[in-house]
Each structure stands twice: as C-alpha cells, then as structure tokens.
Write a structure and sequence with these properties.
Elements lengths: L1 H11 L2 H15 L4 H39 L9 H33 L4 E3 L2 H18 L3 H22 L1 H8 L5 E2 L4 H14 L21 H23 L1 H8 L4 H41 L4 E4 L9 H24 L9 H47 L11 H39 L15
Parallel strand pairs: 1-3, 2-3
Helix pairs in contact: 1-4, 2-3, 2-11, 3-9, 3-11, 4-5, 4-6, 5-6, 5-14, 6-14, 7-13, 8-13, 9-10, 9-11, 12-13, 13-14
C-alpha cells in the first residue's frame, strides 16, 4: 500500500506531470489529432522542466549569497525554507502527508466541478508542502488516522480552490485578462501587495515604463539588468565576508578569485531567470489552449492556477524591484524581531526572490512603481513576522529551528495551531465548517456558472 501511495505522491507532487496530464485530458476532450496530443502534452511538461531547471539555477546561486550575507554581516538565526522543514517532517509524517496530498487534489477537482471556485491548482510541489504542514499541525492537535487525512485533505482541496479566487481580479490585471490564476501558497501576500497598490499608487507609472536614455538602453534587456543587479549583490556580500570571515569566501569560491566568483554567480543567476522565462512561454503556449478542453467538456469554465514564476514575464522590471524591496522588508523585520527579543528570522533568498518578485508584479499592476515598492516591502515584513510566529507551533512537533517561508503557510499554520491550542478539535471543525459554507455560498446566491471573480474589470 505504501508503495502505491509513494507512486501517486511522486506523480501528483511533480507539477510537470500534473500539467502534462491536464493538457492530455484537455486535448482528448477536444478530440485533437494524435500527433497534436503528443506535442501538446509534452509542451507543458518540457516547459515546466525548463522552468524548474531555471529555478534550480536560481536557488543554487542564492544559497551562497545567503551565506555571504549571514557570515559577512554577522547575522545568526533561522532561515525559513519550505524544502528543509518538509524533509524533516517527512521522516515523521510521510504516509499522512501523501494521503492528504491525494485527497486534497481530488477534492480540488470536485470543488472546481460542482462549485463556482473553478480553479484547478497545478503547482504540485506547493500542494505537497501544504499537505505536510497540515499533517504536522493537525497531528499535533490530536487528529490521527482517517480523521487526520480527510480533514487535512479537505483543508488542502478547499484552499487550493479558494485562494486563487480571492485575488483573481488582481491576477487579471497582472495578465491583462489572460485566463490563468495564481496557484502558489504565497498568494495572500501578493493580493495584499496589489491592495496596497490601489491605495498608494494613484497616477504612479508602471515599472515597465521606466524612462531610460539610449546609452542605458541595454538595461531594458531583462537578462542583462538582472545579471548586473545580482553581481552588485554578490560583490557586496563577498567584500563584507572578506572583512569578517575570509575563509567562508575561500570555501564558496572553491579556488576562484573572489571577484570572479561574485561576477560568475551573479551572471549565472541571470541565466537561470532567462531559462525560467523561456519555460513559462512554453507552458502557456500549450497548456492554455489544451485547458479549454477541460473548461468546455469536463469542468466547465475551469481556470488553471499556476506557479508564481509564470507571472514574471508580465513585468520583468517589477521582478527585480520586488525582490530588492522584499529583501529590505525582511531585513527590517529581522531587526525589529531582534529588538523585541524574538527569534531572528534571517531573510531567505529563495522566498524573497520568488515571493517578493511576485508581490512587486502585483503591486505594480494596481499601483505602478509605488505599489511595487511598498507592496513588496510589506510582503517582506510578513516573511519575517509570520515564520517567527509559526516557529513555536512547529517547534512543539520536533521541527525546532526550521519553519515554512511563504505567506499562506505561515498564516494557515498559525490559525490552525493557535485554534487547536485554545479550542481543541471543536475549533478546527468550526474552521472546516466555515470553509464549507464559503465554498457553497456563491452557488446559492447566484445562478452563474462562471468561475468566481474571473471577470475583467473595466478601467475607470
């Protein structure tokens, strides 16, 4: 039985397979010729593998940068990392996590078919992370066996359908009406950034309209501008580390000159971003047309909810601004936590790049440059305070000194954990009942069959 669960978990936690499967079913539903089914199925798979390869390059180059900053500026504390906490939890809750993942994905499809939350969550690794969080928190409260799996699966399936709908009006502004949704569990941070943009960004011009003279026009090339920014980040980190702890630089450079190491690392990071963009274009070229088969034949009006990196090409300049100001917010949050005597949450490069960049994109969509700057900065603050608040909940489970990094994980973990502490199982069932009402209510209030909030708003 465990072998079968592991097999399905491996498939369902791989977004490449999940996207390929969705495309395959959609193309069959459209009665597409066989050769086009083959290419249309492989396109999203190869596109996501390309995206993942680019993301891997990005993460591999962010890790030494985090070390340089930590050692160069003498900062010690906890670095939030979804993969790290999941790997620890898997040793304790492996079967429970896999079972919740499968139930959650099936319920997501069920809710998409029979409610107005018609969003199909395609970011499988984030579903896996959420399944791990739910198994850990619910298990600590006292749930076990079938009750744990069904309740955890319900929360996963419900949030996978509800979270894209919450900010779909903002997502449509980001994509200029493209039929995709946000399928990433940092979503509430992005929607918050977009909301902030509506409050501060009146008459603020888009980050993509930055006026650059001809002699600086090369900065319009996203790959080049990203490379230059990251080289500067690396050089600062290397110089600081050489002053305080030169041995660390020697180990990271692995025989290279420190300056050459900084330049190569920054430029390699830019290559990773470029590969991500290419993968995104390949995904959208095949997935969106194939998804129409699902939307018209199997789950009418369904909308694919995709990874946050898919949105990067819509506002490449906002990606860099969002990363920079989210990281700044994380630093401010770290110092505030230190002043208050709390645990230091060291800004994790991976969450601040991916989540901060996306917050910048959403803030820019509603509030231009001001929205991108302030929205991503506030997102960065939350990426410090939420993991710090979640840490005690996870620490009781034996996961001390490791915590989830993204917005939704922190908020949901804190909500369930604190509710369980104060109200026990009854409190958790009340939250589940509220979610059930939220899922059903839109279908009761209106006869519309369209996906909730998936309407392009007219400009005023």
């Amino acid at each position: 039985m465990n072998g079968v669960l592991i097999f399905f978990q491996n498939i369902l936690s791989e977004p490449a397979f999940l996207m390929g499967l969705i495309a395959f079913v959609g193309l069959l539903a459209l009665k597409t010729p066989g050769h086009k089914v083959l290419t249309g199925t492989l396109g999203p798979i190869l596109g996501y593998l390309m995206l993942a390869a680019g993301a891997g390059v990005i993460q591999a180059n962010l890790a030494p940068l985090a070390t340089l900053i930590e050692q160069g500026f003498g900062i010690t504390g906890v670095v939030p990392n979804n993969e790290a906490v999941t790997s620890v939890a898997q040793k304790i809750l492996g079967v429970e996590t896999m079972s919740i993942l499968i139930v959650g994905l099936l319920l997501n499809l069920f809710f998409a078919r029979f409610t107005r939350f018609k969003y199909i969550f395609l970011t499988g690794h984030h579903s896996f992370f959420m399944a791990c969080l739910l198994s850990a928190v619910l298990g600590a409260i006292g749930f076990e066996g079938v009750a744990l799996v069904l309740l955890g699966g319900f929360f996963l399936g419900a949030w996978s359908a509800i979270s894209p709908a919450i900010g779909q009006k903002y997502t449509l502004k980001v994509t200029d009406g493209d039929e995709i949704a946000m399928g990433h569990f940092g979503s509430l941070g992005y929607y918050l950034a977009a909301w902030i943009g509506t409050k501060v960004g009146k008459d603020s011009r888009s980050t993509e309209e930055l006026q650059i003279s001809d002699k600086w026009s090369f900065l319009r090339n996203t790959t080049i501008s990203t490379g230059i920014v990251m080289v500067i980040f690396y050089i600062i980190g290397v110089v600081a580390c050489l002053i305080r702890n030169p041995q660390v630089v020697e180990e990271l450079a692995n025989g290279k000159n420190p300056l050459i190491f900084a330049i190569i690392s920054g430029l390699t990071f830019a290559v990773g971003v470029s590969v991500v963009y290419a993968g995104v274009r390949m995904i959208l070229a095949d997935l969106i047309p194939a998804f129409q088969g699902i939307a018209t034949k199997l789950i009418p009006n369904a909308v694919p909810a995709v990874d946050c990196a898919v949105f990067f090409p819509y506002a490449p300049t906002a990606v860099i601004i969002g990363f920079a100001f989210s990281f700044l917010g994380g630093l401010v949050g770290m110092f505030v936590l230190g002043a208050l005597g709390g645990v230091l949450i060291i800004p994790g490069m991976v969450p601040h790049f991916f989540c901060g960049a996306t917050a910048g994109i959403f803030g820019n969509a509603t509030g231009g440059r001001k929205g991108a700057i302030l929205g991503s900065f506030v997102n960065g603050l939350f990426l410090a305070f939420l993991p710090a608040t979640l840490l005690p909940v996870l620490g009781k489970l034996g996961f001390a000194n490791t915590t989830f990094g993204d917005f939704d994980f922190g908020l949901i973990g804190i909500l369930l954990g604190r509710t369980g502490e104060s109200a026990g199982a009854i409190g958790i069932y009340i939250i589940a009942a509220v979610l059930a009402v939220v899922l059903v209510l839109p279908s009761v209030l209106t006869k519309s069959k369209e996906a909730l909030n998936n309407i392009v708003e007219e400009e005023e």
